[in-house]
Amino acid sequence: MVLISKREAINRRVLKTKSILGPLMTGVAFLLAGISIVFIDPVQIIVNYKLRLTKGSTFFELLQHEIVGARISLYLFNITNAERFLAGDDEKIKLEEVGPFVFQEYRWYEDLEISEDGKQMSMTPRTRNEFIPERSIAHPKDVNLTLLNLPMLGATNLLSEYPSFLQYTFNVMAEQLGSKPIFNIDVHTYLWGYDNPLITLVHSLTPGLVYFKKIGILDRLYDAESEYRIVAGATDKDRFRIKSVKKIRRLEIGTTEDVDESVLTFETDTYEGIGYPKRLSPDTPINLYRIGICKTFKLEYLGRKPMEYGGEGLRYTLSNDTFKSDANSSKKYPDGLMDISSCFYGVPFMVSKGHFLDADPKILERIEGLKPDRNVNVNEVLVDRMVSVPFQTNFSIQLNIALGDVSYNRHTKRLANTVLPITHIKVDQPKMPQAIMNKFYLAFQLGPKLELAIFIVLTLTSIVLIGHAMRLIWYKLKTDAKGMDFEMNIDKKLLQTEIIERS
After folding, report:
1. Is pLDDT above 90 for 502?
2. Is Protease a UniProt keyword of this protein (predicted)?
3. Which of 76, 74, 75 is nearest to 185 (CA)?
4. For residues 299-337, b (16+ Cβ closer than 10 Å) or e, as one string?
5. Alpha-carbon distance 99 to 422, whole Å?
6. Where are the domains of the chain?
7. In terms of pLDDT, which residue wins out, 56 or 378?
8. For the residues 70-92, what does the mean pLDDT come to?
9. What angle separates helix 6-40 from helix 447-502, to the nearest 10 degrees?
10. Greater confidence, 135 or 59?
11. Listed residue (378, 401, 390, 392) closest to 318, CA to CA
């Protein structure tokens, strides 16, 4: 028998206690760590950190670099019976859709600033575009079509409500210039505009009515003469929500000074479309704003859609409310048209869905060649719910001109009180770069699997450690019980020996 001292016995008990507490505490820590992964969702935390809008963040730097934007496909309406229609021989104007002429848009922001409290950001949007020949039927410079003379029609309509002596002066000058409401022109010039003597004439007759010298579809859409300053939200709840847009005219006629043109404020949830608040909800209303158009496009929520990379998308389409007659318009137009004349100084431009889809059928009564088709004229936006960035965009919209009573001019008399299509515009979003898609696969597919694997490893390890600690506790309790019996037996024998010796 080996006898140990009392101190040594205590030390052994302490060591046994440490050997129990070590795995027990480690097991509990691992268990809590595994549970925390389930409730905290570290993947979401990492995504939120990467997409935060603060100075120096990834998103902040990304906005200042060139971003691949929308791809714009334009289809022009070639007029095949111009002379017969204007002469009154044909009741309907016959149109032939020609295109596409495709342009890739690139966007970035300059002078990007975050407010001191981090709640707002202000920025100056910049855009450029490139013609994509491989997606187009031909180069715009190589295609000549018979199209509406927008400067002529715009000027004629602008003067339709002015005194008759101004109308007479305009008619005389237009005759001398040989201006006709329908003419033959190459597509490039039609898209980007050209110096037109009629616009100069309007300047001289009604100073300040318009500030631009030319009218072209893309020229007016990008509005190169103006500069914009956007103020938007920067918090998680209102990220990218536009609060105001300040339009600054770069050059006023007759002066070299910049002049403040207007400030648009938005009370509703309005966005440019590059991003939305985090964890977007179907209950969040969305309106899209486009630089160059002073009106917004209301989106209607359709439902959810699983994404190929593992996320969940929210589907939207253009709401028909966008194309209802505006109560603030000076005139009442048929349903299906959005009046944007206030954006273009009275030139009666209207936006509709492609081929007047969902518009008042009366609009098509004097037009032949348009075929509204919901399967062709697709309008859908798909936004990732967690990251809140658009992954798919398809719009089919149409630019039109709604002429009033222009019968005072003998050349435009047949076009009076008619809505005429100018161009069919299809907007789609190119697929995101593979490098970005890989990050989404990591976040939505590999990330959750990695979380599950770590949770399983931590949970199993904690079970093993806690089980080991329980075994040690049981063994210690059993050993301690035997030790107590042994000590009691020794004490009894010593007591008996002491009694015998005294006897």
Report:
1. no
2. no
3. 76
4. bebeeeeebebbbebbbbebbeebbebbeeeeeebbebb
5. 13
6. 6-40+446-502, 47-432
7. 378
8. 94
9. 160
10. 135
11. 378
